[in-house]
Amino acid sequence: MTTLEHVLPADIEKTSFSIIARELSESGIKIPEELAPVIMRVIHTTADFEYASTLKFSPNVLEIIKSAIRSGADIVTDTNMALSGINKKALGQFGGEVHCFMADEQVAAEAKRRNLTRAAVSMEKASQLPKPLVFAVGNAPTALVELCSLIESGFSPVAVIGVPVGFVNVVAAKEMIMSTEIPYIVNEGRKGGSTVAAAICNAILYELAKRS
Q1: Can 44 be counted among the known catalytic residues?
Q2: Which of 106, 116, 110, 109 is nearest to 140 (CA)?
Q3: How far apart are CA 136 and CA 38, in angstroms?
Q4: Helix ranges (DSSP H) in the chain
Q5: Residue 81 C-beta-side C-alpha neighbours within 13 Å
Q6: Less Cβ around it within 10 Å: N or C end of the chain?
Q7: Is-above-0.90 flag for pTM?
C-alpha cells in the first residue's frame, strides 16, 4: 500500500510541480525554459507526461499571446467547462474577458437551421467581437475547422490554442490550424480537452501576473 504524504494545502501545487520536474529529469526529457510553465501545468492537470512531446508551439506564440493580453485581448472558448476553468480575475486585471457562445440561443437556432454544430456557429459569432481574440478550443474539432475557414476569409485572431479531444476529425483539424499563418499552440494527436485548454490559458495568465 502506498504511504500517504503529509503536505500542507498551500504546498500541494508546489510539491506537484516539483514531482513533475523531477520525473521529467529522470526520464531525460528537457523542456525549453520558456515553454515549461505551459507544459508543466498541462501535465499537472492531466498527470500525462506525453504532453511534454506532443504540445506544439509556433514561433514566439507565448510572447504574442502575452502581449495581446497585456493590451486587453479577450479569450474565446468552445465549452462552458473551459469558460469556468479559465481564471477570469487574472485576465480581467488586463482588461480582458472570457467568452463562450455555446449556450447562446441565437447560436443554437442558427446551427439547427444550417445543420451545423453549435461550436462552428459560435466561432462565427465570436469572430464579430470588436477586440483582439485568443481562441482556446478544447472540445470541438468543428470549431477549429470553422476558424480555418474564417482565417481563409481574412479573419485574423491573435492565436489559436487547439487542443480538442476525440476520434472524429480531431487530428485533421489540428493539422489544419498548424498549416495557417496564425500563431498556435496545438496538441498533436487525439488527446486534449477543456481542462487542457484552460490550463494553457491559466499558465500564460499566471506568468503575466508574476511580471505585473
Answers
A1: yes
A2: 116
A3: 14
A4: 12-26, 36-46, 51-54, 61-70, 80-85, 88-92, 105-114, 118-126, 141-152, 170-178, 194-211
A5: 11
A6: N
A7: yes
Is the CB of residue 139 less than 8 Å from the CB of residue 196?
no
Q: Which one of the listed residues 16, 44, 46, 108 is annotated catalytic?
A: 44
Cα distance between the two ends of the chain: 45
- Residue 30, pLDDT above cutoff 90: yes
User: Is 180 within 8 Å of 157 (Cβ atoms)?
Assistant: no
Residue type, 205: L
d(CA 194, CA 3): 32
The residue written with cell numbers 483539424 in the block is 173
Closest CA to 65 of 197, 174, 189: 197
Residue 130: enclosing H or E segment and its boundaries?
Answer: none
